[in-house]
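Q: What would this chain look like folded?
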Amino acid sequence: MADLFTPADLEKYLRQGALDAESVEVARRVASGWLRSATQLSDWPDPIPDDLFGWGLELAAIAYNNPEGLASDAVGATSSTWERGRRAEILQAAREAYPTATKGPLFSFPEWDWSWR
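A: My prediction, written as structure tokens:
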């Protein structure tokens, strides 16, 4: 089974070096879980398509940088604000790009033969 991305990919994406390895692994698994739930894919395709790679990285960055899902945070003179709707946007795009079995039949059916009785 292919991974969505490597820890090094997340470090490059976040433009930070030496991220906490355990936190990166948790963020990777959280992002993978969110995407699996949205796409209903049991295994990631190999190679990973660019859309899944990008969504996975962005979701992992959200999980890594803001695990509590805060809208904003202030510590002393430093404050941070996060776009909380972005996760929902990514997951909706994933649902639309990878239709699930709940949306209807996955196979084609033969035309009805009116002579069948």
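The helical segments are 7-14, 21-39, 50-65, 86-97.
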